[in-house]
Amino acid sequence: MSSSLHSPWQRHVPQIQRKHQHWLTDTGSLTQKLKNHCEQFVVQRVRQNRAFLNLSETKSLCLPLGRRILQRQVLLICDDSPVVFAHTVTALERAGRDWPFFNQLGNRALGLTLFANPLVCRSDFEYTRICAQDALYQIAQTALHTHHFKVNLPRHIWARRCLFQHVRHQNSRMMVTELMLPEIYQLEKTSKAR
């Protein structure tokens, strides 16, 4: 992936409408939260392949720039509307040993698998506002069009990321970045979740 052109990643909560903040700051499972806000939840895998590490991910993953990684990109869809574009990366040599489920996910959610594993801990969230010139923004927009969603993203979208670490393997890290697509802010809890 090419260079990133977003605001710096930061730990403090971004300046976003208070009624929308929970989508960025909730520490529970985003997958479960989305399921509570729609009748039909779908994970659409966009791609899963080997790639090279992005500059903005090197420090957090403790890997050098240009290192080969395994990446997975998905759209999270609520009632036929894409609401999140998720990008996950981990070191190629760690995927099979420390994250054996990763290659078998298909169109299933990664989040529920990670939350169910007591040997996995998650770091605090970092936040940024990604602009239209950013590589990840462009990948998300292309994914939407490729999967026939007529969604044109605004010039900036909020994103969050965190690191998952396997407690038995100190150097085993998986980074999950979630881009909040515009429709996520229109979701309301369904009657089944109230």
TrEMBL record:
GO terms for cellular component: cytosol
The keyword Magnesium appears for this protein: no
Catalyses which reaction(s): chorismate = 4-hydroxybenzoate + pyruvate
One Pfam family here: Chor_lyase
EC number of the protein: 4.1.3.40
Annotated localization: Cytoplasm
GO biological process: pyruvate biosynthetic process; ubiquinone biosynthetic process
InterPro entries associated with the record: Chorismate--pyruvate_lyase (IPR007440), Chorismate_lyase_/UTRA_dom_sf (IPR028978)
Binding site residues for substrate: 72, 110, 178
One function term, GO molecular function aspect: chorismate lyase activity
KW Lyase (keyword) present: yes
Keywords: Cytoplasm, Lyase, Pyruvate, Ubiquinone biosynthesis
Any coiled-coil regions, as ranges: none
Pathway assigned in UniProt: Cofactor biosynthesis; ubiquinone biosynthesis
Family the UniProt entry places it in: Belongs to the UbiC family.
Its biological purpose: Removes the pyruvyl group from chorismate, with concomitant aromatization of the ring, to provide 4-hydroxybenzoate (4HB) for the ubiquinone pathway.
The protein's name in its UniProt record: Probable chorismate pyruvate-lyase
Organism: Hydromonas duriensis
